[in-house]
Amino acid sequence: MAPGTRKRSMAAPRDGFLSFKTDLDSSGPKNKRKKRLNKNKKKSWNKHSDVHDVEEFLEDVRLQERTLGGLISEKPDDNLFFVDAGDESRDSKLDKDKPLQVDVILQPDSRIPAPTDGLASDKPDGRRRHKDKPLRIDLILQPDSRVPAPKDVLAHQIPNAKKLRLIAQRAQQLEAHGVVPRRQRLLQARLQRSLAGKGKANKPAANNDPQRGFYDLWSGAAPETADPWYLQQTKKMLVKRPARLNVKPSTLPAVEVPAPGASYNPDFLSHQALLLQGHEIELKKQKAELRLERQLAFPKEQIATRESAFQEEVEGLIEESEDEGPHDEYTPLYQAASGEKKTERQRKWERQLREREKRWKALRQARDRQQQLFRLRSLKTEVLQQEETTGRRQEARRAKKLEEESLPRRLGKLKYQEPDLDLQLSSEMAGSLRRLKPEGSILKDRFKSLQKRNLIEPRERAKFVRKHKLKYVEKRAFKEVTV
């Protein structure tokens, strides 16, 4: 037998055995080669990785934490099981408390509770205990998870806690040595002054007064008497409060009451008055925009036309004639004054004219003064009218000043902008509070109120300005461009 023939017969499969290579069988499906996957990127890793078992395990852990407050494997046996010892004393007690069969038969079958009076209400019964139970709505609103809420770290932090702790320790040390704090000494001095002078200011003694007492500034003990000179020299006297700090910056109230038409169900006239007010505000805004457009608009006189364009094109091509030239255009309309010298007669005549004009003015002034004697009544009436006009102007200025006190002043580089009026049209009105649409913001309203009452200056939101320029870095490992 040839070697090649033996190999072929041995390679042939026998009956009753399965071949390891299924591709030899032409009838069965061909095995595909397993695809190799590249998992060096996060996208490919998430796509071709099976983490279903990990997610099920984590979901089971979360379920145990919500229902039991922790893992079952970590719970002690006392929390999971209890031993039923079968207490005989407890069973006998239950049998004693159990009613007899005769008593059960004699009990009424009606489920309607019997009427109770005031005397019997003092006895505790099942209905009384049922009333003490929480309501169903309260039980629904209670959290069903036993996982404790995350601790708010910021809620337990105190600003400048270390500094305050050091100050408190220093105060305790001083108190142990018998040193009184400065604030407490000032309060005691004010109390002594109020009790001694009863509100009258004591004038400090002169610096060269021999009767003035002397104090040791370096001693730790407080002085026996609160001398104004001592308090003034040791800088422990309170600074006098300026009078301007006692005046309010604005006469406006802290909370302004809205108009009656702003209610959720106003009457017709009040709502129409509010709509008219909003209409006037919009008209003012529209007029301001139109005025700005007119000021920035290009003048119609300077708009190029066909005639002006043609004139510019042919300018300099047409020769000007000798008669019509720039000489005629710039010819002066008057002749230059002659350089002849005036004669003595002309000078004398001009001097006489000046003297005659002066005498005429003096005569006219004297005549006017004489005429005023005959118009004393009219002058008195004019004076009264002028006084009335002056009084009206003073009243107007006083009213304007009072009105300006309630208006916002210019505290910064920005002007105060009145917020938009919150109103609803007649078609948007809601008849009930449930269908009412909220408008405006309480935070913005309070912020605008502070600006209107001159407590803070008008300001605008700060714009984000990038300090450094963005850098683009190319990662060589994954060939990705990130910011």
Automatic annotation (TrEMBL):
Bias (Basic residues): 30-46
Compositional bias per record (Basic and acidic residues), positions renumbered to this chain: 389-404
Record keyword DNA-binding present: no
GO biological process, one term: ribosomal large subunit assembly
Cellular component terms (Gene Ontology): nucleolus; nucleoplasm
Compartments reported by the entry: Nucleus, Nucleolus; Nucleus, Nucleoplasm
Region (Disordered): 1-50, 110-133, 319-346, 385-404
Transmembrane segments annotated in the record for this chain: none
Protein origin, superkingdom: Eukaryota
GO molecular function: 5S rRNA binding
Predominant place of localization: nucleus
Keywords, sorted A to Z: Nucleus, Ribosome biogenesis
Family (UniProt): Belongs to the NOP53 family.
Function comment: May play a role in ribosome biogenesis.
This protein's name: Ribosome biogenesis protein NOP53
Gene that specifies this protein: NOP53
